[in-house]
Design a protein that fits this description.
With 197 residues, the protein is of the alpha+beta class. The protein contains eight helices and five strands; from the N terminus they run H-H-H-H-H-H-H-E-E-E-H-E-E. It is globular, with a radius of gyration of 18 Å.
């Protein structure tokens, strides 16, 4: 399967805002957005003349931003969009709800991992269980009431413990409930668009 292997800080700089792709580094002054808030490359340093952004350009930037934030490639994002468009309701809201219901995103939101990439790796390496069953598919869609926990063998991992120390920096959303002592979280309900940060 294909994956993005280039520098992820370039993606934040291209979107001109923090996408929190690098974990703890995004909360410090070492974040490249703090130092160089312009697009990467020879034409991004502000010397080039600014072209007028069209409606298509605005929509493209928003699509790229959400795709990069949730760490999806184009084909996977398109399939997610097609599934969201087949559901009842507003397609944009359905898309964001589907993306927020992914297992790797919930692991990140609960604070078991410092970034979505780290959460994806935790899931792939069989450190996460859903309803006491091992799940190693990052795109697994959770249902309200599902219980997500770190496997007993993986609870002392430095990645998990360090990430849980930083949970206070980023708030746990209202649609999730975290039991820090048991390293267990509950997916209470599907979030509404207004609740998603």
């Amino acid at each position: 399967m294909a994956r993005y292997t280039d520098a992820v800080c370039k993606l934040c700089r291209r979107e001109r805002q923090k996408l929190f792709l690098k974990g703890a580094k995004c909360y410090t002054e070492k974040c490249p957005i703090e130092r160089r808030n312009y697009p990467p490359g020879q034409h991004g340093s502000g010397n080039a003349r600014r072209a007028k952004v069209t409606e298509y350009g605005t929509q493209l930037r928003e699509k790229q931003k959400i795709k990069r934030m949730y760490r999806l490639l184009e084909n996977q994002f398109r399939l997610t969009f097609e599934k969201a468009s087949r559901q009842r309701g507003v397609t944009g809201e359905n898309l964001v709800k589907r993306l927020e219901s992914r297992l790797d995103n919930i692991v990140y939101r609960l604070g078991f991992a410092s970034s979505r990439s780290a959460a994806r790796q935790l899931v792939l390496h069989c450190h996460i269980t859903v309803n006491n069953a091992l799940v190693n598919i990052p795109s697994y869609i959770l249902k309200p009431g599902d219980v997500i926990s770190v496997r007993p063998k993986s609870r002392k991992m430095e990645v998990v413990t360090e990430s849980l120390k930083r949970v206070s920096e980023r708030q746990i959303p209202a649609w999730l409930q975290l039991d820090k002592a048991a390293l267990k979280g509950t997916y209470l309900n599907t979030p509404e668009r207004a609740d998603i940060p």
